[in-house]
Design a protein that fits this description.
Blueprint (H helix, E strand, L loop, with lengths): L4 E2 L14 H10 L4 E7 L9 H5 L7 E2 L2 E10 L11 H4 L4 E5 L10 H12 L6 E2 L11 H11 L2 E5 H4 L8 H15 L3 E4 L12 H10 L11 H4 L4 H4 L2
Parallel strand pairs: 1-2, 2-4, 4-5, 5-6, 6-7, 7-8
Antiparallel strand pairs: 3-4
Helix pairs in contact: 4-5, 5-7
Bound molecules: zinc ion (2 copies).
Length: 240
């Protein structure tokens, strides 16, 4: 499968990642990517950047080493109402926004509560992707999630880091398989993200691709094949 986009990477600004914007972009160029997204953790993640960081992204070129670059955020989901850690006025300026549940920022609830949280997040027109919905600590109703993704035009992420042998998201494989099976049933597209915290991991989707292959997931539902396919879903093009 043609795989030329990484929608989920971090740099030094996230506080627990180790490379710069240009190092990530250079790696993207070396690996032949046609689109790279840099999505720093939202302000509620310990050690990540202040809201001002996100407001100032306008100063950055949207291309480096001949690779188009999107700048955005990996928001923290905060509660069942679907609040996130940047206001819409700031999100409006982002090229791309992922929203994810993270340990320090969200108190685990029941399956119904966690699902309600993500469904409410998906109603936010500036949230483009739900990041790693495959964490056993936050059980989800995958049928509801997949149907809502279709209804609201939000992409579900297959997160490569979740599937790596070093992942701290246990059982991601089983949970992702459940989600992907429903995506096939309801014809809902997905996007692969490396969730790289170091440049050498940029564009690395090896575990995600192996799982797709194993379950016979159709290529047509994977949007990493061509930047054009992503455009209807991403703030940079969708909300401007
Ligand atoms: Zn995350
Ligand atoms: Zn991340």
């Amino acid at each position: 499968m043609r795989d030329v986009i990484d929608t989920h990477t971090h740099t030094l600004a996230s506080g627990h990642a180790y490379s710069t914007i240009r190092e990530n972009a250079r790696m993207a160029a070396e690996k032949g990517l046609e689109l790279l997204a840099i999505t720093e953790h939202g302000p509620y993640m310990l050690g990540s950047c202040h809201e001002y960081y996100f407001q100032n992204l306008k100063v950055l070129d949207r291309e480096a080493y001949d690779v188009p670059v999107l700048f955005g955020v990996e928001l923290n989901v905060l509660d069942t109402k679907g609040h996130v850690d940047l206001p819409n006025a700031t999100l409006k300026m982002m090229d791309i926004a992922i929203a994810s549940i993270h340990v320090p920022c969200y108190r685990p609830g029941s399956k119904e509560e966690n699902t309600e949280a993500l469904l409410n997040v998906m109603k936010n027109p500036y949230v483009n992707i739900i990041g790693h919905p495959d964490d056993i600590r936050y059980p989800l109703d995958y049928t509801a999630l997949v149907q809502a993704a279709k209804e609201y035009g939000v992409l579900l992420e297959l997160n490569n880091s979740s599937l790596s042998p070093f992942s701290y998201r246990a059982h991601a494989r089983e949970l992702d398989t459940e989600m992907l099976t429903l995506c096939m049933q309801y014809q809902v597209p997905i996007v692969l993200g490396s969730d790289a915290h170091v440049d050498t991991d940029v564009g690395n989707h090896r575990w995600a691709l192996a799982l797709l292959e194993e379950i016979g997931f159709p290529e047509e539902l994977v949007l990493n094949r061509d930047p054009k396919l992503l455009k209807p879903y991403i703030n940079r093009w969708k909300n401007r």
